Amino acid sequence: MSKEFVVGITGASGAIYGVRLVQELIKGGHFVHLLLTDAAWQVFQQELLWDIETGDRRAIPGRLGVPEERIAVPDMQDYRSPVASGSHPTDGMVIIPCSMGTLSAIAHGASDNLLERAADTTLKEGRRLIVVPRETPLNAIHLRNMLSLAEAGARILPAMPGFYHLPESLDDIINFVVGKALDALRVEHQLFRRWGE
């Protein structure tokens, strides 16, 4: 059954996690609202070596290799987007990777852009919000903000890969973290070998 998800990618290192998650969700037949902070575009250029102009939302489906009809990439200030309102049902939201700045804003109820607003809406509607922080080391402020989000109903899923599945490549490590995010969304996948298999 096709579902509708929101995926946010921030300026934290690890944009490949978000890219792979979007690809897997769409490959599974789902629709994705992809929310990209300004800093996410810079990380695309730096880490993925994408020659892409900042804010060129039309280029994203091609870069991801996904059909245009399965993805929406709204402007971060477009509050007409369906995900800005709790009246538009979605099946959950993942912020992957999540910067400490974005995490802090959500933990304190800020809605200064569409990603923050969508996260706030997800929480207030009691839907699944999975936050994948990508920072190290963590200071006490980071930890307090994560606790605040967890207490508000978010699931904190740090980008900490396991190694019991004996990864043989960087893709295996990426797939482990993305697979854990899919597990949190209750979306079936075959991205890694589970314990005991």
Describe it:
The chain is of the alpha/beta class and 197 residues long. It has one domain (4-185): Rossmann fold (3-Layer(aba) Sandwich). The chain is 39% helix and 14% strand. α4 packs across α6 (140-152). The longest helix has 16 residues, at 170-185. It is globular.
Jot down its keywords.
six-stranded parallel β-sheet, alpha/beta, Rossmann fold
The averaged pLDDT comes out at 96
Provide the β-strand percentage band. Answer: 5-15%
The largest β sheet comes out as: 6 strands, parallel
Q: How would you name the CATH homologous superfamily?
A: Flavin prenyltransferase-like
Write a compact overview of the structure shown.
With about 200 residues, the chain is α/β, with parallel strands linked by helices. It contains 7 helices and 6 strands. About 40% of the residues lie in helices and about 15% in strands.
List the helices and strands and how they pair.
Elements (H helix, E strand, L loop, with lengths): L3 E6 L5 H13 L3 E6 L1 H10 L12 H5 L6 E2 L20 E6 L1 H8 L6 H11 L4 E5 L6 H13 L2 E2 L13 H16 L12
Parallel strand pairs: 1-2, 1-4, 2-3, 4-5, 5-6
Helix pairs in contact: 1-7, 4-6
